[in-house]
Design goal:
single chain; 481 residues; mainly beta; Immunoglobulin-like; 3 domains; seven-stranded mixed sheet; 32 strands
């Protein structure tokens, strides 16, 4: 299987601010072997897409928005030898960093310069469904050539992001296969931990193509990868000084890939997951981020040299997933992370003594797939049904709902709940508490339980954040009864 560039290109980051064990699933087994050597769900909606288009003249607009986003096709240089054409925000990858203040209303003007309708989702924000940026919840799409505005009061604080929420199906230039993503950071009232300066890192995979998995159904693979839109070695390094505490804000904006990051001779002190502070600031050698997950972690610069902060797996790093980190007055060849056993446990960030809560309601959510034939994408189901042929999950305001994510498939699933956060309460039967997220990886053939307190009425989308799974039915709608 043809997979990676024969001669690794090296990378950096134009976006940097200045100053239980893992076991591969059925598809990743095939993929890892190769490395070493968009909604079916939305077709009824898109068939009547005009019902979801925003009437840009329906309401008066403020004279001057706080931010402007332009959606357009661009030519982008991942490296001097790797140029792509994609869709992006404001002519850059990632889009501009939006720094907001919690609770202070913000107005954002969005101009769609494409020949098709688009939409922008404010991932991680607890905002009304009509501005959340999801057609399924009732947010209007932005017509081709039109400008629209959204206004909302940002909450909660922390590291979030904004991105397209359109399906791709078999067009690997659409959806999150494109460059339509950027960081949305809501300033906290107080910093959760002291640091000297911060760096924002956005991970993405490029040049997707279909390959056959071991059972003959299709999956998506990539020929290139980047951090902040540049392949490893092709941007200015992150420059640090010995003794500094650097806060890294990391977003995985990949359409389908989980990534493992490490920095040799350094540890990550995790202070927040998906933007929410954690009760235990554990130190780890390795970070795992599924699609759409975010991690904020402090690294104390205690080992002078020139290093690569990047994928611990050489094949992904060789494809471009990394950034050079350079201490002051240090020169030489960047030292790569050491490949190690891929182990990750959310519970390390939880309460030291888990607190148990009795749920008011239990909501089973069973994930399965149906083989659709050789050369086709699997059909994905929640409780035996694929979106849009599903029934809404009913929530009762104010009650604690125990969401039981039961993954009966052989694939991992980064599942995401819009407009809310849930608290992890058990992983593979092991109790935890205090970790609030809006995305969690439910590993193959495992169960994760999470508590949702229903406190933000309105239509709420739940889906796998893997683009090919979402495009193949892995979605359902939560509604308040």
């Amino acid at each position: 299987m043809k997979r990676l560039l024969p001669n690794p290109e090296q990378a950096g980051s134009p976006f940097a601010c200045p100053t239980p064990s893992f076991s591969p699933n059925r598809r990743r087994l095939l993929r890892n072997a190769a490395l070493a050597g968009s909604a079916t769900l939305l077709s009824p909606i898109l068939g009547s897409q005009s019902n979801f288009l925003l009437d840009s003249t329906a309401a008066p607009r403020p004279a001057s928005p706080d931010f402007q986003i332009e959606i357009a096709e661009i030519d982008w240089e991942l490296s001097p030898k790797k140029k792509i054409r994609t869709t992006a925000y404001n002519g850059q990858i990632p889009g501009k960093l939006l720094r907001l203040s919690e609770g202070r209303p913000v107005t954002i003007a969005i101009t769609n310069k494409l020949d098709r309708a688009e939409i922008v989702h404010w991932h991680g924000q607890w905002i009304p469904p009509d501005v959340d940026g999801s057609m399924e919840e009732g947010s209007p799409m932005i017509p081709a050539g039109a400008t629209s505005q959204v206004t909302f009061a940002p909450r909660p604080f922390g590291l979030h992001w904004y991105h397209t929420h359109t399906p791709a199906h078999r067009d690997l230039k659409l959806g999150l296969y494109s460059g339509q993503f950027g960081v949305l950071f809501v300033e906290p009232r107080t910093n959760p931990a002291p640091y000297d300066h911060e760096q924002f890192l956005v991970l993405h995979d490029w040049e997707p193509y279909f390959v056959s998995s071991d059972d003959g159904s299709e999956m998506v693979d990539y020929a290139a990868a980047s951090i902040n839109g540049r392949m490893l070695g092709h941007a200015d390094p992150i420059r640090v000084k010995e003794g500094q505490r650097v806060l890294f804000h990391i977003v995985n904006a990949s359409a389908t890939e989980a990534h493992w990051l490490s920095l040799a001779n350094h540890q990550f002190q995790i202070i927040a997951l998906d933007g929410r502070p954690v009760p235990t600031q554990s130190k780890v050698d390795l970070l795992r981020l599924g699609p759409a997950e975010r991690i904020s972690a402090i690294v104390t610069m205690s080992s002078p040299g020139v290093w690569i902060l990047g994928e611990t797996r050489a094949s992904f790093r060789n494809a471009g997933m990394g950034v050079v980190l350079e201490y002051a007055n240090q020169t030489g060849k960047p030292q790569s992370p050491t490949e190690t056993q891929l182990r990750w446990d959310y519970r390390l960030s939880g309460d030291s003594s888990p607190t148990a809560h009795a749920p008011d309601v239990t909501v089973p959510l069973v994930f399965t797939s149906r083989f659709k034939g050789h050369g086709a994408l699997d059909r994905w189901m929640i409780n035996g049904k694929s979106y849009p042929d599903t029934e809404p999950i009913l929530l009762k305001q104010g009650l604690r709902h125990r969401l039981v994510f039961q993954n009966r498939s052989k694939d991992d699933h980064p599942v995401h709940l819009h407009r809310h956060a849930f608290e992890l309460v058990s992983i593979r039967g092991a109790a935890t508490s205090g970790i609030f997220k809006d995305v969690v990886i439910v590993e193959a053939e495992s169960t994760v339980e999470a508590d949702l307190v229903a406190d933000n009425p309105g239509n709420t989308l739940f889906h796998c954040h893997q683009q090919d799974h979402m495009d193949s039915g892995f979605m359902t709608l939560f509604r308040y009864a």
